[in-house]
């Protein structure tokens, strides 16, 4: 293989529990986002736009859709003669074989893959953030600082700092301390989960960590603290653009809504930094005669005959006459009937909502089963199901299966697949 | 479609659509918000199972070549077969400019002979339809035809006679006569200029016609062989958009605003593929007002649009009012501009407050890159 200066390893194995039923049958990086993308498109496009042409994608949770989506990597220009994109699931090695036990272990299990390219640096990424970042300047920074490890950080408001891993640095941005979710944060530099390591050093730490029975095999919990302890040269790389962790229903929803502002909070229309993805093969979208479309993004293949306000419509969505869609995220190929009212609803891929339904109106009550996941008022309709006509559904409701005879779901209810009703 | 070589004749006469084909061949003419005319024939061939396709080009083929690339969007970037672009080049007696369709096919003979296919399907690019050619091939085999010409029965418009090639057939579908550009129509079976025949026969016919100095495939081969060969007409019954003038271009574009037409043309037998641009979804601002429009990805709409087709990456500023118009890729309409019955070619900028008004029968067409 031809030697590469830097290759990227993208951690895409997380289950993404806090996205609730959005990740019921697909991995978090494969969740649709922003009208025509999937979450992983942002990281993969960043790689391509930064000149990184070798990317290992580590998967283990429901990888089918993600694998199919990535395919040869052609949409991101990652189908290369030397390098390109590789899906790296855990595999049996000799007598041994196991799942990825943590982020560090996942990289450890793929040392062989990395060594093929004999890289000087390895960029560790996660597939669940929405941002545009030039990794090549971070690598340049890493080289200039003669660092062993560089960690991308973003300034967060002080009151939110305790939700993040916080890097305490000197004036020169050298990290002297790392605190995971500190009660009293000393700094506002939150780790973005993006690391550049000098490969020889990382390899040594991964091998040592693997032998430590008390380690959780995690970058944040084990590798980074250990390296700091050993007095390694670690630097914070400050990033000041848009960055959003879309790990919860609320933040996923907000990040979608951020695309609708004018001027945009997060600009997808920047031709110098395009986001690539697999394009649907669809006609331009059609907007009918009697509808109002405002503050929304609408993708090819849509057929809109109703009103749409402040919403994101993915490709192939149909909105019937007299319907009103407000503050919604409607995923690919969902069909909304006539005279349907939706507010604060995430509609899954290919879901069907029949005529005269009203969804997302009512009291605000957290969800009965999972109050931690569904409490921000957003109702979620699972992919592929059908909501029969005249159904009324409140806020924070989760509908996991077609509702048949149930015509009313109060705020906070959970219509689950397992339930026999 | 088994065992068939596809030949797309993209060197068609385009004098009637000069304004929008000045800098491109008709095959590369944008249509329907994100397509180019050639996408339809090419996708139909691919959807019918043709795996080896050659495209004969003549003038202004840069944008066509750019559009087709390696053919990957049509799944034609194959090791075996795939897409070949046959551009004119000076060989022996040829001067790099085809004298006619026979000359063009003769120049492509190297490519045609190389293929192992039994049949060859020849088609132009300006008849837009969504057709599976398999039925036509079955018809061809069943009838034991030597040449099958695809036609569509339509109402004859007197003013368009100059553009028609009309077929007369017997009850069995056998062609009894063909007239190119007749002044008195004898039938309403209009040729779609798509031909199916065995490759060996084509090779023979072209060599023979070329040796005799003939120029036109229809007049000098098809018409002359009626009676000598078994020429059959295959009736196509689906939707057809025949783009042969700026008026028909405008009219058929506007028909796309009807759902049933979109369903027929874009989805009936298979999807129509085109070059991918990685555009962002279209964005509508707070002031946008939209009625009966077809809008491609990458557009940003802040003004008013009604009965329009917007290609990828069009910007409509606040206060602009656009009606009954077709706006090509990456045009910019500035604040308070007014457009009605207008066709804007790629990258046209209409400055603040300008007005352009055409009529339904005579839409104003603005050439590529102009600033108004």
Molecular structure report:
- The complex is a heterodimer of chains A (421) and B (372).
- Chain A has 421 residues and is of the alpha/beta class.
- Chain A is built from 8 helices and 35 strands.
- In chain A, the strands form 8 sheets. A 7-stranded mixed sheet of chain A has the order 5-4-1-8-13-10-14. In chain A, strands 17-20-23-26-29-32-34 form a 7-stranded parallel sheet, with no helix packed on it. In chain A, strands 18-21-24-27-30-33-35 form a 7-stranded parallel sheet.
- The model of chain A has no long low-confidence stretch (mean pLDDT 91).
- Chain B is α/β, with parallel strands linked by helices and 372 residues long.
- In chain B, 23% of the residues lie in helices and 28% in strands.
- In chain B, a hairpin with a 5-residue loop joins strand 9 (165-169) and strand 10.
- In chain B, helix 4 (101-107) packs across helix 7 (199-211).
- Chain A binds chain B through residues 34-36, 74-75, 259-260, 262, 268-269, 274-277, 279, 281, 283-300, 303, 312-313, and chain B through 32-34, 72, 257, 259, 262, 266, 271-273, 276, 278, 280-298, 300, 309-311.
Write a brief caption for the model.
The complex is a heterodimer of chains A (421) and B (372). With 421 residues, chain A is α/β, with parallel strands linked by helices. Chain A contains 8 helices and 35 strands.
What are the main properties of this structure?
heterodimer; A: 421 residues; alpha/beta; 7-stranded mixed sheet; 7-stranded parallel sheet; B: alpha/beta; 9-stranded mixed sheet; 5-stranded parallel sheet; globular
For the termini of chain A, the CA-CA separation is 58 Å
Biggest sheet of chain B, in brief? 9 strands, mixed
Structural Rg of chain B:
21 Å
Oligomer: heterodimer
Radius of gyration of chain A: 23 Å
Strand content of chain B: 25-35%
- Biggest interface in this structure? A-B, 37 and 36 residues
Instruction: Measure the end-to-end span of chain B.
Output: 48 Å
Overall shape of chain B: it is globular
Q: Show unreliable segments of chain B.
A: none
Number of strands of chain B: 28
The main sheet of chain A orders its strands as 5-4-1-8-13-10-14
The DSSP helix count of chain A reads: 8
Mean pLDDT of chain A: 91
Helix content of chain A: 10-25%
- Poorly predicted runs of chain A are none
What is the mean predicted local confidence, pLDDT of chain B? 89
How many β strands of chain A by DSSP?
A: 35
Strand count, sense and barrel status of the largest sheet of chain A are: 7 strands, mixed
Overall helicity of chain B: 10-25%
Which structural class fits the helix and strand makeup of chain B?
A: alpha/beta
């Amino acid at each position: 293989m031809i030697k590469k200066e830097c290759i990227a390893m993208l951690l895409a194995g997380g289950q993404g529990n806090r996205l609730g039923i959005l990740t019921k049958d697909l991995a978090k990086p494969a969740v649709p986002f922003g009208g025509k993308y999937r979450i992983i498109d942002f990281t993969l496009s960043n790689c391509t736009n930064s000149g990184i042409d070798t990317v290992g994608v580590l998967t283990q949770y429901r990888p089918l859709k993600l694998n199919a989506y990535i395919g040869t990597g052609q949409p991101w220009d990652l189908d290369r003669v030397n390098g390109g994109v590789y899906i790296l699931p855990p595999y049996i090695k000799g007598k041994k074989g196991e799942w990825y036990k943590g982020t560090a272990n996942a990289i450890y299990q793929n040392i062989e893959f990395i060594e093929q390219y004999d890289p000087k640096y390895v960029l560790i990424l996660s597939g669940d953030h929405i941002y545009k970042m030039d990794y090549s300047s971070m690598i340049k920074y890493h080289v200039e600082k003669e660092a062993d490890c560089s960690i991308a950080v973003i300034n967060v408001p002080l009151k939110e700092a305790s939700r993040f891993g916080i890097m305490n640095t000197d004036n020169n941005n050298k990290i002297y301390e790392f605190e995971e979710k500190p009660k009293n944060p000393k700094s506002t530099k939150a780790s973005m989960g993006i690391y550049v390591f000098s490969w020889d050093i990382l390899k040594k730490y991964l091998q040592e960590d693997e032998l430590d029975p008390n380690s959780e095999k995690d970058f944040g919990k084990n590798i980074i603290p250990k390296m700091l302890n050993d007095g390694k040269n670690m630097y914070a790389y400050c990033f000041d653009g848009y960055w959003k962790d879309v790990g919860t229903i609320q933040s996923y929803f907000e990040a979608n809504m951020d695309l609708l502002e004018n001027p945009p909070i997060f600009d997808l229309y920047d031709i110098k930094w395009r986001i690539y993805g697999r394009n649907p093969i669809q006609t331009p979208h059609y907007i009918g005669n009697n509808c109002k479309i405002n503050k929304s993004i609408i993708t090819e293949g849509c057929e809109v005959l109703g009103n749409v306000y402040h919403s994101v419509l993915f490709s192939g969505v149909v909105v019937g006459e007299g319907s009103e869609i407000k503050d919604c995220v409607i995923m690919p190929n969902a069909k909304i009937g006539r005279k349907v009212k939706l507010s604060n609803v995430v509609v899954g891929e290919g879901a069907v909502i029949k005529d005269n339904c009203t969804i997302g109106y009512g009291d605000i009550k957290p969800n009965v089963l999972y109050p931690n996941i569904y409490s921000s008022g957003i109702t979620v309709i699972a992919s592929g199901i059908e909501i029969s006509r005249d159904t009324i559904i409140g806020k924070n409701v989760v509908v996991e299966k077609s509702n048949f005879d149930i015509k009313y779901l109060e705020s906070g209810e959970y219509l689950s697949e397992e339930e026999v009703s | 479609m088994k065992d068939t070589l596809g030949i797309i004749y993209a060197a068609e006469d385009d004098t009637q659509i000069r304004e929008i084909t000045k800098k491109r061949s008709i095959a590369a003419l944008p249509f329907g918000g994100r397509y180019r005319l050639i996408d339809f024939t090419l996708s139909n061939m691919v959807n019918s199972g043709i795996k080896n396709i050659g495209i004969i080009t003549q003038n202004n083929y840069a944008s066509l070549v750019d559009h087709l690339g390696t053919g990957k969007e049509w799944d034609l970037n194959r090791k075996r077969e795939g897409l070949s672009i046959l551009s004119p080049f000076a060989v022996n007696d040829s001067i790099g400019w085809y004298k006619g369709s026979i000359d063009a096919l003769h120049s492509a003979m190297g490519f045609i002979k190389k293929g192992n296919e039994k049949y060859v399907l020849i088609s132009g690019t300006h008849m837009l339809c969504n057709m599976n050619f398999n039925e036509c091939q079955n018809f061809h085999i069943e009838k034991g035809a030597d040449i099958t010409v695809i036609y569509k029965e339509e109402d004859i418009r007197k003013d368009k006679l100059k553009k028609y090639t009309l077929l007369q057939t017997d009850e069995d579908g056998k062609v009894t006569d063909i007239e190119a550009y007749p002044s008195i129509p004898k039938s309403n079976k209009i040729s779609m200029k798509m031909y199916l025949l065995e490759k060996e026969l084509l090779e023979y016919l072209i060599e023979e016609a070329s040796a005799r100095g003939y120029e036109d495939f229809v007049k000098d081969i098809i018409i002359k062989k009626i009676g000598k060969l078994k020429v059959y007409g295959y009736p196509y019954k689906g939707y057809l958009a025949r783009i042969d003038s700026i008026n028909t271009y405008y009219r058929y574009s506007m028909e796309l605003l009807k759902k049933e037409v979109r369903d027929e043309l874009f989805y009936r037998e298979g999807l129509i593929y085109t070059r991918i641009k990685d555009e962002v979804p279209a964005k509508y601002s707070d002031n946008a007002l939209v009625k009966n429009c077809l809008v491609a990805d990458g557009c940003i709409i802040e003004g008013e649009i009604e009965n329009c087709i917007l290609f990828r990456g069009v910007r409509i500023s606040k206060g602009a009012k656009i009606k009954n118009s077709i706006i090509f890729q990456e045009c910019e309409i500035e604040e308070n501009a007014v457009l009605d019955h207008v066709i804007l070619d790629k990258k046209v900028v209409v400055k603040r407050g300008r007005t352009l008004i055409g009529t339904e029968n005579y839409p104003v067409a603005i050439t590529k890159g102009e600033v108004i």
